[in-house]
Amino acid sequence: MSMSAAATCIGAAVWLLGGRHYGVRRARLLLAGGGVVTAGPPSWEQVMGELRRLRGRLGAEWWSLAAGLLLALLGASVIPVVAGAAGVPVLRRLRLARQAGRARERRADAVIGLCGALAGEVRAGRQPGEALLRAARDSGGLGEAQAAVVAAARFGGDVPGALAVAARQPGAGGLLGLAACWRVAVDRGAGLAAGLERLDGALRAERDQRADLRAQLAGARATALLLAALPALGLLLGSAMGADPLRVLLHSGAGLGCLVAGAVFEGAGMWWATRIVRGAEVV
C-alpha cells in the first residue's frame, strides 16, 4: 500500500507539472496569434523535460528528502521522512556556504588580476585614471562596486574611497592595498607601478599559501567524510547479511535509542571535524 501511494503521488506530480507546462505553452501560442496547439496529455519527452528542469531548479539538498522517502518505504516508518526533511535546510546551508566560498576565491583571483593589469598599464605610460579604467574593464575584479570605482576614476572622484568600499565584498580585501598604493602615489608622488607590483606579489603569495593549506587539509576532509559514511555502509552490510537493520532501528525501543544516540554522535563528530578544519584554515 505504501508503494502504491508513493507511485500515485509521483504520477500526480508529474501529470500536474506536464499539464501546467502544456497550459502555459498553449496560452502563449494563442496570445501570440500563431502556432499549432496540439490537444491531449503531455508526451513522454515533455514529461522528462519537465523533470530535468525541475531537477535544475532544485538544489542537491532535496536528495536528502528523496533518500528519506526511500528509507521510509523500505522500513515502513515515517521517521526517515522526518529526518530527510530536517536535513534539507542543513544541506542547503552547506551548499550556499560552498558557493559563497567559490565566489570569494574567484573575486580574490580577479583582484590579483586587476592589480597586475593596472601595474602593466601604468608601466606602459598611461595615466592612473585611464589605466584603472582599462584594467577594471579587462579583469572585472571590482565586482558589484565596479561602476562607482570607474566613475570616480573617470571624473576625478575619490578613487581610494571607492576602492575601500569595494573591498568590503568577500574576497576583495586586496583592494584595500590598492587604495593605499593609489593614495600614496597621488598624495606623495610615489611610483604607483612599483607599489602595485609588490602588492600583486604579496596577494599571489597569500593565494598560494591558502592553496597549499587546502591541499594539506584534503586528507583530513576525506577521512571525516569516510567516517561519516560508515553508518550507511553498516546498514548496507546488515541488509546484505539478512539482519534487517531498518526493522530493528525503526520498530524497537532499543533500536530507536541506538538510532538517536548514533545520530547525535554522528552530528557532533561532523561538527567537531568541520570546526577543526576551519580553525586550521583561519590560522
TrEMBL record:
Which residue spans adopt a coiled-coil conformation according to this UniProt entry? 196-223
Q: Where are the transmembrane segments?
A: 62-88, 224-243, 249-273
Identify the keywords attached in UniProt to this record, alphabetized.
Answer: Cell membrane, Coiled coil, Membrane, Transmembrane, Transmembrane helix
Q: How does it sit in the membrane?
A: Multi-pass membrane protein
What domain of life? Answer: Bacteria
Kindly list the GO CC terms recorded for this protein.
plasma membrane
Stated name of the protein? Type II secretion system protein GspF domain-containing protein
Q: Which organism is it from?
A: Streptomyces cellostaticus
